[in-house]
Fold this sequence. Notes:
Elements: E1 4-6, E2 20-22, H1 34-37, H2 42-56, E3 60-65, H3 70-73, E4 78-80, H4 82-91, E5 96-100, H5 103-112, E6 118-120, H6 136-147, E7 154-159, H7 164-172, E8 176-178, H8 183-191, E9 196-200, H9 203-212, E10 220-223, H10 234-239, E11 242-245, H11 257-266, E12 271-274, H12 280-285, E13 288-289, H13 292-301, E14 307-311, H14 314-323, E15 328-331, H15 347-358, E16 365-366, H16 370-385
Parallel strand pairs: 3-4, 3-5, 5-6, 7-8, 7-9, 9-11, 10-11, 12-13, 12-14, 14-15
Antiparallel strand pairs: 1-2, 6-16
Helix pairs in contact: 2-15, 4-5, 7-16
The structure holds 1,3-dihydroxyacetonephosphate and iron/sulfur cluster.
Residues 102, 128-130, 161, 249-251, 277, 313, 339, 341-342 line the site of iron/sulfur cluster (SF4).
Amino acid sequence: MSTFISITNPSLIGAAQPATLHAPEIEPGVGCDFDSYLLVPDNSLDERIGAAKARLRGDVVILGHHYQRDEVVKFADFRGDSLKLAYQASEAAGRYIVFCGVHFMAESADILRRAHQAVILPDLNAGCSMADMADIGQVETCWSELASLGDLQVVPITYMNSTAAIKSFTGEHGGAVCTSSNAANVMQWAFTHGEKVLFLPDEHLGRNTAFRMGIPLEQMIVWDPYQDLGGNSQDAFRAARVILWKGYCSVHQRFTPQHVSRVRREHPGIRVIAHPECRFEVTEAADQIGSTEGIIRAIAASPAGSQWAVGTEIHLVNRLAKEMPDRKIVSLDSSVCVCTTMFRITPQHLLWALDNLAAGNVVNRISVDERTRHYARVALDRMLALR
Ligand code: 13P
Ligand code: SF4
């Protein structure tokens, strides 16, 4: 007999989902493709994910980034920002690392994992538009154009939010990876190894970091991969200390200085904290900046009754507001700022991946090839050594 179930948790933003569907005669299970998991009733997801996790016992570790939905992140064994999760991936026990985050994070985990482990991304479509803004061919062209200008002694740094190929390029050319938590340490390290830094792929994180290290804006130039010499003159390169790749996060770039003024007007005395992926003008107008982990730490350390406007992805902001009801915590932008790719990981994806792993079926494995892995690991290890 078939029954009606309602789907309140569509897996894809914007994807048309019927309000009601006929439940299948057969319970979705191992061997079923992912689509059949869309029919698992919402009210049985928690129990089934818990049961699948229990079946896997010590064989699986689930990592969850702060931007994941509550229904997913509650199953994470470790929750964190990119840096914390990179450490967890390098130290994880268990055969399977299920990464509830985006593709570049799972790739980094695959580079850091031990030989017997496999990294799984529950939805392969969970990418990052910023990471896609630095293509390896474009970066190689940039590097050879820089080399044609003479001995500039440039050290590449790539933000964790980049593909494994870019991390590998960085490692091979004497550079390191950074995250939003340690970008200043890594930049400091880079200046002990060269005169200039090529910062990939986030223009804003690079500028915000360098400026707070005392480098004036006039000594930073932007490399536009679609223009000759990145759109700069040869003299500009000689004067520059930091070359910023023209990439950005579409979620964080939405915040503007007007949002900061408005929230201050509407909530007198409120403190504004912004992620360093926000534009320079926003971080200048804010009271402080912080990675996701830094934002959590700052708000948790503030006294009850404090008011915060937070410039970052909405799932984290809403979770903080729920977890700390004695503080007022609002988004810097009242219209929803969601990372649509982080949002792609649904409880259904997690259940599908776990059910398959429990049956010995490794699905959605992220696997970085050996040559890329070698130098990407060099770049990641340089960062981890700066702990
Ligand atoms: P964090 O390292 O601060 O968590 O940032 C990752 C990210 O993708 C922010 O957009
Ligand atoms: Fe990428 Fe921005 Fe999403 Fe972070 S918030 S994963 S940088 S698109």
